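dumping this here before i forget
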Amino acid sequence: MMSDADAEGCTVSELIDARELSERLDGAAAPMVIDVRGPKEYAAGHVAGAVNIPLSQLPKKLKRISREGLVVTYCNMHHRGESRGERAAALLRENGYDARALDGGYPVWKEAGLPVAEAASGSPVSRV
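structure:
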């Protein structure tokens, strides 16, 4: 069993910080951003332009995700090292994708004042 000290340095996937992701989204080869939280969490607020594929559905939807370019996944990252976003990025990497998880997840993105969107009541959720 791992101690807390061992777990601190352990990450399931490579991370990308919010500022770097924001810069890449403004670039020519913008990454695909996937919110792996549930539909209600996504509707309450998400990274602008992100699509919603809950982690439990990701394995079934891999064929719909382009292998060209970077894919960034995120959640609320309550448990760094084992978050849904990190697990999703690891799954994508295991399947040949260039994938990273957003460090700090949606809360850090929002706190940084970066573009967010909310689904209007009754609006469809953006899904792949």
